[in-house]
Amino acid sequence: MNRLHYPPARRTATADVLHGRRVPDPYRWLEDGDGPACTRWLTAQEELYASCSARWPMRPVFRALLEELTDAGCSLAPVTSPPVERGTRRFFLSRAGHQELPVLMTAQGDGPGRVLVDPLAADPSGATTLDFWRPSWTGRMLSYQLFAKGSEEPLLYVLDVDGGIRSATPLRPGRPSPVAWLPDDSGFYYVAGAADAPSRTVRLHLLDSSGGEDAVVFETRLRQLSVSIDPGGKWLAVSCAAGAQAGNAVHLADLTRSGPRVPQLRSVYDGTGDGTQALVRFGPGGRLYAITTRGAPGGRVCLPEQEAAPPGGSRAVTENGNGNESGKENGNWTELITLPPGQALSGCVALTHPRDGAVHYLVTATERGSTRLVLYDAQGERLREVPVPGSGPATLSGLTAPPGETDHAWFVHTDFLHAPAVHRFTLADRSVSRPGSGRQTTGGGPTVRQVTYRSDDGTEIPMYLVHPPGSGRGPRPTLLTAYGGFGLTAAATYSPAVLAWVKAGGTYAIAGVRGGGEKGAVWHAAGRGRNKPNAFADFAAAARWLIREGWTTPRQLAVRGSSHSGLTVAVAITRDPALYAAAVCSAPLTDMVRFPGLGLGAWWLDEFGDPDDPHDLDTLLGYSPYHHVVAATPYPAVLLTGPRRDPRVGGAHLRKFAAALQFATGSTAPVLLRTEDGVGHGGTRAVSGLITLQADTLAFCAAHTGLVPDGRQAQRGPA
């Protein structure tokens, strides 16, 4: 194959001098995604991509596989959700096989459902999506948020459930917002503030107000802000943090003393200094409990010392609630449940036994890829482990319980071979059942293995391998991925893309590198900030292990990732280009010097470090992919994908990295850019668009690793 003629992209002498270091930025002009020069360049990239992708033989094969496998439902295209119970009503998502997007339904008791909100009715093109919906405690009112064309600035509507009347004028909170309804349906608290606003606020919106600005009840300079209220309307809780997975501060108000308009919020927890987190929860009868990582990296459940006092004592919040109060917390947490070493707590709900009213706690926890469902009594004594569906690695998520005195809870079960399915736990007989909903199917056939390997410093890293049934180690075309950031776990979940690749004859590997949440907060800290290079070392070690153990070869190995995982892939190919045959890098961060000024990058200083700090800058420049592209290097085949306008990461990362690679590559393997209009950063989109994207990325990897349509891998051999 001859080297492609890439669209011309001028290189400039632009550079910054940071802490005495000259940092070149030759493609800064591509940060202006709407400029005429950038627009012309993107159009030429689209034409190049179309001409190359038309020659990938596996595209129709993967499209057919993905259509079949996605019909069963997955995290990006759910067919149902756990019901949210309010009064006599249930609220839930539903997607029939032919529908592009799920719709929000309601039903009385066990009766048939009716449609409340259909995003396709608002926008038949499928470019408007629904999320962050919340019924009031009575079930008579509903708030929901619509997102148009990939925007992360929603329109927040209120709907009268009985009358079907929607608010004429939506709220514009600026960012996706939690909603905390008052118990009498008179209004709700929500979070307001644009991504670049100097502060964020909790506001009270009253439905009978005559207009005007909603009252501010809390304000903070911290960027992550949430609000919740207990069903009885007694406790209002506000949590704020510097960024995702950073230590948080929690404030609590007794609304029976102050009323909802001017809540007297008091600080009950501050983990902003030590990086720990706490989440206050509301149990039966106004009972308070909390999940915290303080003193337990895997998480523990705590109670207030006295039922009448908030957990951890309290202290006053300053008038504007800016999260920078002086003083110390008073009182202590009372430990209720601490998990055994090696387990990480992922959920907890409080239930009431129907016979005697005794409170029980149902906990989900993970350990070496397996999820446990465990029941505890009111004193924190372990009663029993509840059997869950399936065997082997699996994920239980979405653990929720109806408000008030309730004897049951809902959760979602999934694993690599089975689509997500809603299950119900009933306390009376301690049983788990699956109501007749959804289209649960098995991926069928593939073998799942859990292995471990050692990173460069000797740390043991977990990894999943999913491969064709009855097959030996290979070598065969293999796709490797990892996340390794923000404390998020590479969980065992159903993925149509994973199964499509394996059904076509390949092996799929998912590494649980440091920076994720596989082993709790300690694992996250080991790959965060100045420890971030550990995540990339772990990923490279996974590739070398797969090759050394005979699962694949460098000419059959592709890597794939999106967002933080896209950064991991970008680092991999600039660090060890000869180790991989192909790479798919989606919506990534790549310029780790300017990331705070792109998208929501300023929200992630706690995760990556601050380029304004000279020590952090050393770490960031040590791996920043954009700055490690070297001319005349034989890079692997690279496909870069993402939205043209990425409100979260910022599309400049993708464009600048693509231009740098196309200029520098000394290989005949292509470097292609695939961008889309009208979609956002995440995977939320119409099903057909999701399938098209996944089919393209898998077909690209197949074309460059030797995976062929008839299932017989091309004999490419070692590099």
Mean of residue pLDDT values = 91
The shape is: globular
Class of secondary structure makeup:
alpha+beta
Number of strands: 39
Strand order of the largest sheet: 32-33-35-34-36-37-38-39
Biggest β-sheet: count, sense, barrel?
Answer: 8 strands, mixed
Structure, described:
This protein has 12 helices and 39 strands. A hairpin with a 2-residue loop joins strand 3 (about 85) and strand 4. The strands form 9 sheets. An 8-stranded mixed sheet has the order 32-33-35-34-36-37-38-39, with helices on both faces. A 5-stranded antiparallel sheet has the order 15-16-17-18-22. The chain is globular. It has about 725 residues and is α+β, with helices and mostly antiparallel strands.
